[in-house]
Fold these 4 entries.
Entry 1:
Amino acid sequence: MQSKTSFNLWYALVTLLTLLVLQSMWSRAVRIEQIPYSQFQAYLAEDRVDEVRIGRDRIQGKLRDPQEGEAPQFLTVRVDEELADNLAQHNVRFAGEIENTFLRDLLSWVVPVVLFVAIWMVLIRRMMGKNGIGGGFMSIGKSKAKIYMEDDVNVTFADAAGGDEAKAELQEVVSFLKTPDKFQRLGGKIPKGILLVGPPGTGKTLLAKAVAGEANVPFFSISGSEFVEMFVGVGAARVRDLFLQAKEKAPCIIFIDELDALGKARGVSAMGHDEREQTLNQLLVEMDGFDARSGVILVAATNRPEILDPALLRAGRFDRHVVVDRPDKAGRRDILEIYARDVVLSPEADLDVIAAMTPGFAGADLANIVNESALLAVRRDKEQIGLEELQEAVERVIAGLEKKNRVLNPAEKERVAHHEVGHALVALALPGSDTVQKISIIPRGVAALGYTLQLPTEDRFLMTQSELENRIAVLLGGRIAEELVYNEVSTGAQDDLLKATDIARSMIKAYGMSPKFGQVSFDRDPRSQFLQTGQPQPVGDYSELTAHEIDCEVRRIMDEQYNRVHGILGARRDVLREAAAFLLDKETMTGDELHHIATQAAVTALEASVAEVIGS
Ligand code: ADP
């Protein structure tokens, strides 16, 4: 914008100058001579004036027959009549003075214009600055500056440690890019969009880049927030531009960071969100428009998949989701090792110790630790980075992280481990529960401190009463495990209780599973939520007495399950402790590992009792 405006100014100046020069040349060509008024009077007296044009204070005229060396036209400034007569009588040579108003005129109109332009420029520049546009008005929509393109990416999967599951999924994309024909041989379509989901700093950008590096294709990247602009239509133009550029370079990877900034669910109240909505629509249109055979693969990252517009996640768009989670202990060690390669580490600095100290840390935090420790070592004039520096760096980073996200203290971690193993053991003990896949005490998100991942063995459409009861039991398992080990519960079971109570309430109100009420449903008509009648729905069309009885029934179910789980876990206290210790150490464990510990404990117990019998 800068260059454009000054360019225009220069234009104006040059034109003005040219005009001035032309004017003076013209007046010279016509040859008008400026003469004193007394001279004019003399011409008049000699009858030499042919014609005059009289202005307010100037008189311009032609001489009748100009002599050699005389200009044919003249210009004079009028002098007061009386004064002129007087002066003429005394033979004074006199002339009117031409006031030069040029400068005054110039100032009177040029200064305001210049001021106006200057203020306008300052304002515009400020506006642009705020929105981070370097290019200005003229380049809006082109946005070439902000689309980063790397032709030759030298990041590979080896640079991203941990997250093996994510890498395995992405490996497939690499093969797509490398040998598209192989996958299309039978008419299959290559996925267009891959969504990387995970907390910040876990290496989503790194992985996307590694895909480009491994497949040896160009990598376009842009952040979702950069699409969202002040002016309606600009974001959409950017999306178009991005895809246009990418198609030229295909096969390639387009990486959109912070997809949530752009892809938030389109609200009902669209007030003020027109721009984002347009941009999002444009993205959807572009995604539908391009053919994956062209070899453009879209990779996006978000840490808030739940707020994304469902249209983005539909089949044919971002339908592949790859979870990039915080690394577990082994993963953290590997990441530390990658960064330790670039610094001078003392041989006795044990990275395992640091990995054990840093549950919940993301890759970016670990990279930061290594860097901090290097700085610390330099400050201490050391030749190598020792364990001390690493540990101190961890403390520093933790202090910074504590504000941002959860880093569990050891006591909390132990409690979470028992809690999670509690869930898993109950699931293991109850026949017909979903199999336990993975138990983890790596903090995730805001609420969950750990999680037990159960996967159903088959798709379910119906659930029996005992299966629902088992679900409640598994949910209660965590809380009861805490109770058994610590004789006290914590706030960590809030979500479990909520879910369990919901199931129990549905069993009674919706599914008619209470012998007390018989074949009655107290649930609202499930269709009513689709038939938006505009009428407020009654909360429950039953009496207060019934409501009270429902509450009693819910409590009965919960109590029954509580006792049941108490029995199950009470008999497995040893396994509970052992598995929790294992989990504390490794941070994640598979269902098989838990099963192994449980069988091992059962065998030991059996042996003990056999020995006892034999001994007695
Ligand atoms: P995200 O996009 O998930 O917020 P980034 O990919 O930008 O995270 O990661 C930030 C930095 O953290 C990376 O540049 C890299 O140095 C480091 N990092 C994160 N995860 C890993 C990992 N798994 N292995 C190696 N380095 C990592």
Entry 2:
Amino acid sequence: MLILTIESSCDETSAAIVRDGRCVLSNIIASQVDIHACYGGVVPELAARKHLESCPVVIDQALQVAGVTLQDIEGIAVTAGPGLIGALLVGLSAAKALAFALEIPLVGIHHIEGHILAPFLETTANISSGTQQLQFPYLALAVSGGHTHLFRVDGIGAYELIGQTLDDAAGEAFDKVAKMAGLTYPGGALIDKLAQSGDPCYFNFPRPMLHRPGFDFSFSGIKTAVLNQIKKLDQPLEGELLTHLAASFQEAVVDVLSRKAFKAAKEHQLSQIVVAGGVACNSGLRHRFSQLSLSTEIDVFFPEPILCADNAAMLAVAGDYYLTRGLTSPLELNARANWPLAKVTGPLQGQC
Ligand code: KG4
Ligand code: ZN
């Protein structure tokens, strides 16, 4: 089945054309980062207005790059939530209008469902620590600007929540620490770059919840510890000192995420871990998970970076699965700002 997918949950407008839920023919992403950087975070109304401009453009480009026309499209999958409501409504309205006009089925997909199924897409650059193909069941760590969640994934539409952050998401902590250090928004990738030349043991930041039972996380304590450390410095936060701060902060986050994820996988007898979402681009996180994979029987799967950040192609795995089984959403489909993934058992239906 040839499907068009549309993602607009936050500050990236994206459209993709994917065949059979596996083969990515195009995956166009228009980032709004320049618009929001000067505000230090995403401004919801500006995001929605920019999606309105970018949506037709990315859809046109996705068709062109894939070498297909709208008449070739057999179904549409769109992010229906969670996310910024105004932003979601733009992509959803575009998807509904096209589905109606082309008389093809529509399905609303959960944003995190898209992220944690992304390693099934066939691209040359998806990273796996072993030679095995990814199979159900597996443990998924969804780490993004809005989520830090551990799920047991038994199949498409079968997600059990194992743990989650009790306060900030890991990406949010990266962005806030970057802001404290005078870096621009979003700061995750900048911290990652600085950390590569810093000493991860220079500052000793806490590892909250690490030794508590269960698999929940907390990142606000690490963030506060970084703020207190910055206030105590008797020299400007720049040069080598800035790299040490970035490396020590990143080390604390990576330590907590990796140790909890491997413990959860062992306890739930899962031999595969998928790490997905924007923070899965982090080089320190990728390195640590790969190292731990070598010393355990657990294989680790990272989507390639373009499929970790927000993108439309990732919606195609669940989208194609549902559409080919006739599991569709009605044209009255509404967007959901809040939508727990563990409640997803199929396509979103109607009103929120
Ligand atoms: O999944 P995503 O693109 O959007 C959301 O659904 O939130 O994730 C964005 C988050 C931001 O917080 C960003 O700073 C973070 O992912 N991020 C990173 C890196 N690249 C993006 N965090 C750490 N290291 C990176 N290399
Ligand atoms: Zn995301």
Entry 3:
Amino acid sequence: MVAAYIGLGSNLDDPAEQLSRAFMALAQIQNTRLVRYSSLYQSPPMGGMEQPDYINAAAVVDTALKPAELLQQLQVIETAQGRTKGERWGPRTLDLDLLIYGSSIIDTPDLKVPHPGMHDRAFVLYPLYELSPDLEIPGRGQIIELLKNCSSEGLIKI
Ligand code: ROI
């Protein structure tokens, strides 16, 4: 089994409800156990597009699935919760990102792990820190070190 960390985000259609449904769906993935999930965090939208605030969280699972298989399961959950392909930086009902997969570094066209933007995003790092304060982000270092350079301004734990 491999510990995999998943980032969750939503800013449409009752975001807190989207995330609680997503936690339940993560618990149903085959050959995978939901270990823990974080509090919900409200965060201002990153990326410049005018859109509602996001609700973000993180979860850790133990999985026997390969990274591509786990990613596919995450996409099934996104689709089941009404995700449609919108603009790249636009609002979404549910975004599930495979942030970390054990100590693996993966760089394929379909999947990059650790997630390329995660190391400087407060809405990713703070929920992860809540789950695992000692977390090592492969290729990037200790989460506590990354947090020192990452302002929590605008992030509200709810
Ligand atoms: N901004 C925040 N705060 N949280 C997100 O989950 C999020 N996801 C995105 C973009 C549009 C980049 N901005 C975000 O995809």
Entry 4:
Amino acid sequence: MRLKNKVALITGGSSGIGRESAILFAQEGAKVVVTDINDEGGQETVRIIQDAGNDAAYFHADVAKASDCAAMVEFAEETYGALHILFNNAGIMHSDDGNAMSTEEEVFDLTMNINVKGVFFGCKYGIPALQRAGGGSIINTASFVAHLGAATPQIAYTASKGAVLSMTRELAIIHARENIRVNALCPGPLRTELLMKFLNTEAKKQRRLVHIPMGRFGEAKEMAKAALFLASDESSYTTGTEFLVDGGITAAYVTPE
Ligand code: NAD
């Protein structure tokens, strides 16, 4: 068991990467606090974990709200006695996110509030808990778009993930001597709800697939395995990284036919 005696908090745990990570972390011995704004999905994640005989609890928290983030950390410590792993994973990709001219200010602000401020709030309230626990691991979900520009624009989303990546580096440096590691997980294009809603026609899917050397979208389960490595003591000398798990997309200049 790779996370025995650890307590993990995962934001955006109702679906996709968050749900798969919650299930995997619990299988590996962690007690998992699942948080989200989608209560039904979050409770379903917890049910799946408990049905497998493992330990998890759900807490409603909007990561864009400071008070919710303070409360979710408090809930984790009260419920399980400590917090060792903080996975700031919740994020949105707004359907009206486009180029600089077409994107409304409200869409930009909402995206930044959830994707960037959400990570900031997670850390603002989570880091003191990790310090109380004697250290721990923070994983922030960024994206391959923090590394590559796309001709199908999502200007707010791309800006938000760049911010998550640079914030992660600085957090890693600041807390390196406190036994707190901070890493970014940079997924490639995944076959989850979030992206499939955006690439909603076969033509749009194919347009993206052309650029992925492996010729397929990634799976949330594959991200969970990468997150498990960053969460566990196996990555004890790893901090400040941008862990790319992307089917090779950022390495490619030309992809195979
Ligand atoms: P998903 O939509 O399946 O999961 C995102 C979860 O976040 C949902 O359960 C949603 O309810 C929750 N959420 C949304 N707003 C929230 C808020 N304000 N407070 C709390 N929870 C909120 O998508 P996913 O693909 O699993 O995405 C997880 C992370 O991975 C996101 O940060 C996303 O940007 C990132 N990511 C996804 C892809 C991809 O291709 N799917 C690629 C790179 C990065």
